[in-house]
Design goal:
Blueprint lengths: L1 E3 L4 E4 L9 E7 L6 H17 L3 E8 L6 H13 L3 E3 L12 H12 L2 E3 L7
Parallel strand pairs: 3-4, 3-5, 5-6
Antiparallel strand pairs: 1-2, 2-4
């Protein structure tokens, strides 16, 4: 189910397995050519979460027109639910917030959660 709010898109990806740690996701809509490609990426993030021993919760989708609303909602959720990790396909996803590597460092410092990048070396 996709819930589109006034400032952000939030995707609930299915039932949460409460026996596994929660992993949240972050995507930037303008990096995808279609909703189908965005949907395929959500499925890939879910598979990555399962492989890594997490259950994937909400995926926050940033729209260029409302940035940084989804990012701010992500940070609030990480802090509220004491999430230890967030998954994004790559660092480019954070480009609307600032220089991606700097955003990653600041996010990890400020929240204590790490950003996981499937298919990349652990950065």
């Amino acid at each position: 189910m996709i819930v589109v709010g006034m400032f952000t898109s939030v995707v609930e990806v299915g039932p949460v397995d409460y026996t596994r740690p929660l992993l949240l996701g972050y995507l930037r809509r303008d990096l995808y050519l279609s909703d189908r490609q965005l949907g395929e990426t959500r499925i890939e993030l879910g598979a990555f979460a399962a492989l890594e021993g997490f259950t994937l919760g909400t995926i926050y989708i940033e729209d260029a027109e409302t940035a940084p609303a989804a990012y701010e909602a992500l940070v609030a959720s990480v802090n509220r639910y004491e999430v230890t990790a967030v998954v994004a396909p790559d660092l480019r996803q954070f480009g609307l917030i600032g220089e991606p590597a700097a955003v990653k460092r600041r996010f990890e410092r400020d929240t204590g959660a790490r950003i996981m990048l499937p298919g990349s070396e652990r950065v």
